[in-house]
Design goal:
eight-stranded mixed sheet, 7 helices, globular
């Protein structure tokens, strides 16, 4: 696995309509930079010395490349890590416009990959508390099983309801998982699956669903309860 080729896609193409205040949640101030730059730093600090990073891609809203770039430039530590990426891997970070759905935005990111990695890691740009442990465990599992995702067992008892709001099934909590990111896959197979999914007139909620439909099983590795997705500004103060 050491020195294996990986690509990293950080998704930040959503509208952040629930956050309020006129600023995308990925661009909120955080840890001497922004939420988005915090994600990028963790991935580079985790992977630069152990893997060959072939592509580093961040998706942004249509017409939003400048705002995305400015949110990254606020972080001096990230600038140094980008320099290391250029010097050590000969890779320039790339900002790619997304689309109207997460599925299409990730697809745009996959199409922007140029250097044929072994694996691709796809991470929500609004999850700045991801840890090196979670990242490396998803990579390890994806090399072994082809696809992996971090997940945590729900703390509340889960029920399935019908369209009228009545419980129709009592689910076993120990057999459920709430998935997080990064979701990690064999790159070639995921791209092929996305090529098929984009044509089948169905909207997929995440990449594990696309993989499960067109490729096979996804291995779940232990997630982290702190690896939350920022929805409101106060979420940054919870940990």
């Amino acid at each position: 696995m050491m020195n294996s080729k990986i690509a990293i896609i950080i998704t930040a193409a959503g509208s952040s309509t629930r956050i309020g205040g006129g600023i995308k949640k990925e661009y909120l101030s955080f840890n001497n930079g922004t939420v988005l730059s915090g994600c990028a730093k963790t991935f580079l600090n985790t992977c630069l010395n152990y893997y060959s990073i072939t592509d580093f891609i961040i998706t942004c809203p249509v017409g939003g490349k400048l705002d995305c770039s400015l949110s990254l430039e606020k972080d001096e530590e990230l600038k140094k890590l980008f320099d290391q990426l250029k010097e050590g891997c000969n890779v320039e970070p790339s900002i790619v416009e997304g689309s109207t759905t997460r599925q299409k935005s990730v697809y745009n990111g996959l199409l922007a990959i140029k250097n044929n990695p072994d694996l691709v890691l796809i991470h929500d740009g609004a999850r700045p508390f991801v840890t090196p442990k979670v990242i490396t465990e998803t990579i390890t599992a994806a090399f072994e099983y082809g696809a992996s995702v971090p997940g945590i067992t729900p703390t509340d008892t889960q029920k399935e309801i019908d369209e009228n709001g009545f419980i129709v099934k009592h689910l076993q909590r120990s057999m459920l998982t709430a998935v997080q990111t990064p979701q990690t896959f064999e790159y070639g197979k995921l791209l092929e699956a996305h090529n098929k999914a984009i044509k089948d007139n169905k909207e997929y909620t995440d990449d594990t669903e696309i993989w499960g439909t067109y490729v096979g099983n996804v291995r779940v590795v232990p997630g982290d309860v702190k690896n939350i997705k920022i929805t409101y500004p106060e979420d940054l103060k919870k940990l």
